[in-house]
């Protein structure tokens, strides 16, 4: 049985992959993430995160991107 669950990007473990389901933020944040190619439906992989709410590194379409903890906490991902 393959159960998929929805969690925030911050809650993902390093090495996990998932698909972006929703972004709960204002238009500015959504626009910024769109420029980084992070949008609903996009497959991402969490590479690493820093201790105590530091930046989170993820892979999107073969490129590595770092975003802040607060921004990552507003990205909802369906973990595979």
What does this 3D model show about the protein?
This protein has a single domain (5-79), classed as Ferrous iron transport protein A (FeoA) (SH3 type barrels, Roll), CATH 2.30.30.90. Helix content is 18%, strand content 41%. The chain has two helices and six strands. Strands 1-6-2-3-4-5 form a six-stranded antiparallel beta sheet. The longest helix has 9 residues, at 27-35. 16% of the residues are buried.
pLDDT < 50 stretches:
none
**CATH architecture grouping:** Roll
* Count of distinct strands: 6
Task: Report the structural category.
Answer: alpha+beta
CATH hierarchy class name: Mainly Beta
* Secondary structure tally, helices: 2
Here the CATH topology equals: SH3 type barrels
Helix coverage percent: 10-25%
In spatial order, strands of the major sheet run 1-6-2-3-4-5
* Percent of sequence in beta strands: 35-45%
The description of the largest β-sheet is: 6 strands, antiparallel
Mass-distribution shape: globular
| Number of domains as seen in the coordinates | 1
Structure summarized in a few sentences:
With 80 residues, the chain is α+β, with helices and mostly antiparallel strands. Helix content is 18%, strand content 41%. The relative contact order is 0.33.
Structure keywords:
alpha+beta, globular, about 20% helix, about 80 residues, 6 strands, 6-stranded antiparallel beta sheet, SH3 type barrels
């Amino acid at each position: 049985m393959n159960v998929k669950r929805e969690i925030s990007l911050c809650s993902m473990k390093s090495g996990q992959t998932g698909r972006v389901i929703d972004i709960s933020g204002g238009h500015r944040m959504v626009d910024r993430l769109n420029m980084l190619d992070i949008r609903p439906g996009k497959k991402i992989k969490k590479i690493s995160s820093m201790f105590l709410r530091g930046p989170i590194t993820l892979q999107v379409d073969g490129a590595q991107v770092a975003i802040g903890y607060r921004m990552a906490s507003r990205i909802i991902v369906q973990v595979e």
